[in-house]
Amino acid sequence: MTTITEPMTKKQQKAQEVRNAIEQLQTMLSPGDTLKTVLKQVSRSGMYRHIAVIWKDENISYLVARATEDRLCEDGSIGVSGCGMDMGFDIVYRLGATLWPNGTPTPHGVRNGESDSDGGYALKQQWL
């Protein structure tokens, strides 16, 4: 006996893409890994940037954009709005919080003098 499945809605497809990207990144990345960010472009106003995310010499911006539900730009980078803060750090922090929303299984460092297992701080960021 065969069952007929309903086609997925666009909302369900997007949710599935997000889950797939998170699962793939969780297999690739570990707490303590360093992600490098590259500033590709800045708007004239300075309020919008294209930032690429590199891990082990591989551009993983597509997966990061899908997991964090950010905008993927035509140049293969992530489009972010805002100024007055380190937007590369923001991307990496939000990715860590997305991958480990309840924190990491074991502490990955020390923050404010105490063991830290906060998922947002699980990954390190470095500008290229």
Looking at this protein, list some descriptive labels.
128 residues, alpha+beta, two-stranded antiparallel sheet, 8 strands, 31% helix
Give the topology, please.
Blueprint: H1 10-28, E1 34-42, E2 48-55, E3 58-59, H2 61-68, E4 71-72, E5 78-81, H3 87-99, E6 109-111, E7 114-116, E8 124-127
Parallel strand pairs: 1-8
Antiparallel strand pairs: 1-2, 2-3, 2-5, 4-5, 6-7
What does the model show?
31% of the residues lie in helices and 27% in strands. The chain contains three helices and eight strands. It has one domain (31-127). It has helices at residues 10-28, 61-68, 87-99; strands at residues 34-42, 48-55, 58-59, 71-72, 78-81, 109-111, 114-116, 124-127. By secondary structure, the chain is an alpha+beta fold. The termini are far apart. The strands form two sheets. Strands 1, 2, 3, 4, 5 and 8 form a six-stranded mixed β-sheet that branches. A two-stranded antiparallel sheet has the order 6-7. The protein is globular.
The total count of strands amounts to 8
Helix content: 25-40%
Spell out the helices and strands N to C.
HEEEHEEHEEE
Radius of gyration: 17 Å
Instruction: Report the uncertain regions.
Output: none
The number of distinct helices, counting runs of at least 4 residues, comes to: 3
Q: Pairing-aware structural class of the strands and helices?
A: alpha+beta
> What's the structural domain tally?
1
Mean pLDDT: 93
Outline: globular
> In angstroms, what separates the terminal alpha carbons?
57 Å
The portion of residues forming beta strands comes to 25-35%
Question: Main sheet?
Answer: 6 strands, mixed
